[in-house]
């Protein structure tokens, strides 16, 4: 056989192998992207549902507040840190939301280091400390 013919056949085989490898690599990449796109689409759908639920909740709360304002009823503030009985209801492990409902919004927040501190009547007033999981770690009550 002619050496040129044999070299051409080898070159063609190498070319076919190269094309096959490129095809396999590309098809794997496309399949991976399709799976990733499905996961992203699913996550987007889930987040859209959460947003719709939160928007509905906002509308409900605004309706309640608007109704209270129109009827002349005062809109109840969350918690009262000045009431000692509220401080006596605190427990280790309570969430930040539970503390805010009980004592109201803090005047100052210091979120540095391993603990987060909420202060009322700052400086020198009562405070609540939270651990890294945002659960009550400790507190000091207001002085009488």
Automatic annotation (TrEMBL):
Gene3D superfamilies: 3.30.1450.10. The keyword Ubl conjugation does not apply. Pfam families: BamE. Residues 79-115 form the Outer membrane protein assembly factor BamE domain. Transmembrane segments: none annotated. Residues 30-64 form a coiled coil. Keywords: Coiled coil, Membrane, Signal. InterPro entries: BamE-like, BamE_dom. GO terms for cellular component: outer membrane. The keyword Membrane applies. This is Outer membrane protein assembly factor BamE. The lineage of its organism: Bacteria, Pseudomonadati, Balneolota, Balneolia, Balneolales. The gene is bamE.
């Amino acid at each position: 056989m002619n050496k040129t013919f044999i070299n051409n056949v080898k070159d063609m085989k190498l070319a076919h192998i190269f094309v096959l490898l490129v095809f396999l690599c590309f098809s794997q990449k496309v399949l991976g992207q399709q799976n990733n796109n499905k996961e992203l689409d699913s996550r987007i759908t889930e987040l859209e549902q959460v947003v719709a639920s939160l928007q509905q909740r906002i509308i409900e709360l605004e309706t309640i507040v608007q109704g209270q304002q129109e009827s002349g009823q005062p809109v109840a503030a969350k918690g009262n840190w000045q009431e000692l009985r509220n401080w006596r209801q605190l427990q280790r492990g309570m969430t930040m939301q539970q503390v805010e409902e009980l004592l109201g919004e803090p005047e100052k927040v210091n979120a540095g280091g391993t603990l987060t501190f909420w202060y009322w009547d700052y400086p020198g007033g009562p405070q609540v400390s939270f651990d890294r999981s945002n659960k009550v770690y400790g507190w000091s009550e207001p002085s009488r």
